[in-house]
Amino acid sequence: MEFRILGPLEVTDGGIGLPLGGPRQRLVLAWLILEANHVVPTDRLIDRIWGDGPPDAARSALFAYVSRLRKLLGAARIQARAPGYILVADRREVDALRFTDLVNDAHERTDNLEATAALLTEALDLWRGGALSDLAEYDAVRSAITRLEEQRLVALEDRIEADIGLGRHREAVASLETLTSEHPLRERLWSQLILALYRSGRQGDALGAFHRARITLVEELGIDPSPELRRVHEQVIRQDPALDFQPTSQPEAALVRVDDGADVAPPVQPAAADRLRGTPRTRFSVIGGAVVVVLLVSAVAAWSIANGQKRLPRADWAIGLDMPLSGRAAELGQPVRNAVQMAIDDLNSAGGVDGSTVELLVLDDANDPARAAANAREFVARPTMVAMIGPWGSAAAFPVIPITNEASLLQCSPTNTHPGLTKPRDGALDVRAAHPDAINYVRLAPSDDIQASALAAFAYRDLAARSALVIDDTAVGRGIADAFEGKFKGLGGSVVRRALNPDADAGTVLAPLADELDPPGLVFFGGEPEAGAAVRLAMSAAGRLSTPLLSWDFLFNGSGAESGSYIQRLGAAQAVGSYVAHASLPDHKFSFADAYRTRFGTEPDEYSAAGYACVEIIVTAMRGIAPRGPAVNDVRELLRAYAVDPGHRYETILGTVGFDGNGDALQQFVTFYRVEASAAGGTGDWVVFKKQDFGPAP
Fold first, then answer.
1. Beta-carbon neighbour count of residue 657 at 10 Å?
2. For residue 290, what pLDDT is reported?
3. Cα dihedral across residues 502, 504, 505, 507: positive or negative
4. How far is Cα 337 from Cα 405, in angstroms, rounded to an integer?
5. Strand order in 10-13's β-sheet?
6. Neighbour tally for 613: CB within 10 Å
7. Kindly report the CA angle at 230 between 227 and 234, in degrees rounded to 5?
8. Could you tell me which residues come within 8 angstroms of residue 31 by beta carbon, excluding any fewer than 6 positions away?
9. What value does the mean pLDDT take over residues 373-400?
10. Which of 77, 171, 427, 522 is the most buried (most CB within 10 A)?
11. Nearest-CA neighbor of 289 among 240, 349, 355, 351?
12. For 574-588, what is each residue's pLDDT tens digit?
């Protein structure tokens, strides 16, 4: 049995996940796992689960939760011991304890940086997302989550320090760019980034990183950088030789005796084998608009050949790209095409894959599902086509997936969001009817059904609403309103529901706001921007602009300077107090944005970055299957199976990417926006309020 809290709460028995019950029962189990092998007093559990005002029946309810958990997990696992309960488990069965042990082991291997880095990597690989991410909205576990996430960050900093000490400074730069963006007040990360940039021959960028760190610290905290950070800065300015990479001397390999009596070096250990596996292998990464190609020396290549290392067969490998490149939707597809082409060019400039270049075959679907399907047939007809990227819209993906699924062609989507493309409960098995158990479609964009959970959590936690007036337009917005209502009630909120019929006076649905004793603390609207603006105008007329209006991304349709937008219909002043959610992608790395800007003269959007990441995933999968030495005809199926494996992770410009058993990305980001009246030249615009990962997909 395995108990997992480094991600969503999970308990598996023989690899099968167990049903853990409702939120409070899961909170009880979470605290027993957090304090595994220690007695948790009953009073402390009640305080954790219900806070300062537990109900009279709290003790009875806790007993019921524990009884159900004992029935599920076994009485030997959860035992009653005065003054409370204890979860009994081997340390190897609890991912958090295993993580702690691996980190401690790594700290004891100060004599061997390779071993330190390998142990820390193994520890970090135990994480499946944010700690207890499915319970993150509850105060009961917030302090524990903070503690675990801090431990994770420290371990990550330690691993990066080991990597830099091993000369992997170039590889560390991209990760550190992302980490300093996500955690701008952690000075150790800034120090590591400055050092990694300097050792990569980028002294100017290193000085620029210090400048960014100093501005952040002054603006956020009103303090100057620490003496340590200032010292690194000064060393960079004077090009202190102490900053140069000094290879560490690892213990020499002892000789072992083989059957023929010859003395040879022992087998390469995993950490070193990983570096040799792609020999002669190139890594490609965009840095400051230039491609840095890291080639292993010829001696390593000779080692590979002499030892008969398997590799991909040489062939005219190709990746297909289907995007709208003409018509009104061309402005959506062209940035993705640019980024994918840039990724392919970067790859081929770095030597391709096992000596073979990769061709990009670009086909225009003009946002027409029938043309997208025809393009897919052209892709699958080419034997050396290993994967395709696209199409842009979910509507076009529905006729494409049956074609690629039948041909076992990997399909990576940067943009699609419809739940029915991946989730069996929404019809995905019909889409991949040819091989329903052989998933070939993965996507980086979050699934649309994450929005309801995210909106409800935002309303309950960030806007502190405990009651909501939920309004739908009786048409496109009814589904999201229904879903929000269910999720909000699940968090403990109460809902008053109204429907705004076409051409009706919006003021007629606002009567609940006039309740002087207990008016709803929030208005949620599901519908089109025109109707949403009418609701907000009616709120203004009723003197209720202080009540926030929350909605989905249909209202996220431009600034006040754009005709017909939600903000323009209202005027900036009356639009203030409006919030929307937008299912989004992780932030891309600065190095990608810089290279894209240099090449195309414009800023990349989130979907173009996801297109680049799709190429990275496909190429990583190609390299992953290379050691099997596959025949040309076997590459497509092996690549598909490797790429969709939930156990695999991919380092991309979006950070570390993984997929669940349906092909959905493990990270499901939602960005919340609010209206800022002074933006867009005083006409008002949407500005980011917060961005949060709500993964894994529901």
1. 23
2. 31
3. negative
4. 23
5. 2-4, 10-13, 16-17
6. 30
7. 130
8. 40, 45, 48, 49, 140, 141, 144
9. 96
10. 522
11. 349
12. 999 999 999 999 888
* Cross-strand partners of 652: 655
CA distance 611 to 609: 5
Q: Is the backbone of residue 642 left (phi > 0), alpha (psi -120 to 50) or beta? A: alpha
Strand partners, 551: 525, 580
Nearest to 178 by CA among 600, 602, 657: 657
Distance CA 52, CA 49 (A): 10
Cα gap 42→56, rounded to integer Å? 14
* pTM listed for this prediction: 0.58
- The phi and psi torsions of 415 (rounded to 5 degrees) equal -130, -25
pLDDT at residue 282, as a whole number: 32
Cα–Cα distance between 59 and 57 in angstroms, integer?
6
Distance CA 222, CA 352 (A): 48
Rounded Cα distance between 693 and 352, Å, is: 34
Residue with tokens 């195309």: 600
Angle, helices 142-165 vs 113-124, to 10°: value is 150
Residue 675, token pair as written in the block: 């209206």
Q: Is 493 helix (H, G, I), strand (E, B) or coil?
A: coil
d(CA 682, CA 305): 66
**Mean pLDDT across the chain, nearest whole number?**
87
Q: Which two tokens stand for residue 534?
A: 């009418």
Q: Which two tokens stand for residue 73?
A: 């997990």
Q: Longest C-alpha distance within the chain, in Å?
A: 94
Query: What are the structure tokens assigned to 583, written together?
Result: 């299912």
Strand order across the 523-526 sheet: 494-499, 467-472, 523-526, 549-551, 578-584, 669-676, 685-693
Name the token pair of 333. 């597809």
* Strand 410-413, strand 385-389: pairing: parallel
Q: Cα-flanking dihedrals φ and ψ of residue 87, to 5°?
A: -95, 125
268's tokens: 């390469």
Q: Give pLDDT, residue 350.
A: 87
For residue 226, what is the DSSP state? P
Rounded to the nearest 10°, the torsion over CA 139, 144, 148, 153 is: 50
The strand pairing partners of 582, in sequence order, are 671
**What is the per-residue pLDDT across 313-343, written as a single tens digit (0 to 9) for each?**
989 999 999 999 999 899 999 999 999 999 9
Residue 442: which region, alpha, beta or left (left: phi > 0; alpha: psi -120 to 50)? beta
- The token duo for 445 is 């964009």
Distance CA 447, CA 694 (A): 11
For the chain, what's the residue count? Answer: 698
Q: How far apart are CA 374 and CA 2, in angstroms?
A: 46
Across 107-111, 282-286, 480-484, the highest mean pLDDT is recorded for: 480-484
DSSP state of 526: E
Q: In whole angstroms, what is the distance from residue 416 CA to residue 444 CA?
A: 8
Of the candidate ranges 160-164, 290-294, 670-674, the one whose mean pLDDT is the lowest: 290-294
Give the E-state strand segments of 251-397 in sequence order. 256-257, 263-264, 282-287, 290-295, 318-323, 359-364, 385-389
Q: How far is CA 376 from the centre of its chain?
A: 28
